[in-house]
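Good morning C.,

I know you're traveling, so I'll keep this short. The sequence:
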Amino acid sequence: MSPLDEPGVATQPGHAIVRRKRGAALMSMLAACGMTALKLIAGLLTGSLGMLSDAAHSGLDLLGTALTFFSVRISDKPADEDHPYGHARVETLSAFTETFLMGASCVWIVVEAIIRIFVAPVTVRPSVWPFAVLALSIAVDLSRSRALKHVAAASGSQALEADALHFASDIWSSVAVAVGLAASYAGVHFGIGWLRFADPVAALAVSAVILRFAWGLARRTTFELLDTAPAGARQRIVRAVEHIEGVVELERVRVRRSGNRVFADLRVAVPRFDTAEHIEVLVQRITAAVKAVVPGADVTVRTVPRQVLGENIFDRIRGVAALNNVTLHDLSVQQEGAGLRVEQHIEVAESLPLVEAHRFVCELEEQMYRAAPEVSNVLTHIESEPATITASATIEQDRRLEEDLRVLARTLPEIIDLHEVAVSRMGDRLHLSCHCTLPDTLPMHRVHDVITALEDRLKLERPEIDSMLVHPEPQADNRHEGRRCNRVSENGMEEKNDREGGVAARSDLRSHIG
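The tokens, ready to paste straight into the viewer:
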């Protein structure tokens, strides 16, 4: 299996593999140069077409290895502005060019063989040197073919793979030439006339071997130049991604190879209510899944929001709000005759004029009617979305305010504890906040009811409070429960806070009710 057909390419540390690629290409070029010279000399001395065809084959190998040497130097350059996918495809172009060189050698060998068989037969002069050259050639070709194949598999280099195929084809062509020469020499020695055709027939065998290797290489490089996906890569990616939790649908998978790298481009449908943070985590999981089945792949994941089957009326209303990038809260739906009545709070920019805010909300409501045809009436409470940071000023302690808060808290049996009480003034507005401990198993709708009741009762008792924020905490996470009630105030006096609601007031107006 070639690197083109593998799921991915095993990569080694960058600088090490680059040095190996360049070293292998240089050694191949030197080996091809030496063997071409030796075969050419032996062919001219003996007049053997088989030997000359093998020399031509090695000469083409020399051109190919030179082309490979320069292509691997270019392909290792990093991606730039003009080549965002890198320069690795230079190797593919180099390998594709070599197939034409191999095809040209086949044409020359076939033409010369036909001439020697049917037009002007040539007698081969016996000599031991061609056999010595061929034996050396087979040894060198075998060594270089194995070395190049190993480096090509480690780096995914198609140019080196083409070189490995060249040297492998040289082995078989050398064997064919040796057989042809031996048969020709036997014909001369024993006086068998028809054996004089053994040499050109051996040359034809060489051309057939070259043509076979050239066809396989041309086929693979053509597929890559046409952006054909590696075999089975798309199916592996689909199987790995489509069952990941959070993926609604894998809408598109595009895979292409450029040199020794595989690029995977995915478009994934996700629930339209997912947060950006959750989608980012999902993209990381998808990327990891793709790289697990296509090692070393460069993965691009595009997410698109999609409506999920089984969405209820609340999901569709929130979906419209999310599409318009507005904050929606306090959403409620009531049955109203044959239809549904929707009440909601929408936040808009605090600097937006009323006429524009109203126009925007009307358009939003129209979208909600289309998204949820069963809705007959939408009532929207328009609020301003805070966008200004207001400097707060902590006011002096108000013991009476805290005591009123505790008294009201005792009227709500679900409240176990109040702490972190803070009162501050923002401009001309009074703001109060506190932490409230509630039972662990209390449902969230009851939590909301209890907190709302506490806020409403305090604002009724103390209308000067403009806003109030209550943070609910489960009893299991109450870090204040169990603390000793004796505290030391700022003036160094120890005061007692009993379980009935006595408070050790501090200047920041934060206290604990045990």
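Safe travels,
E.
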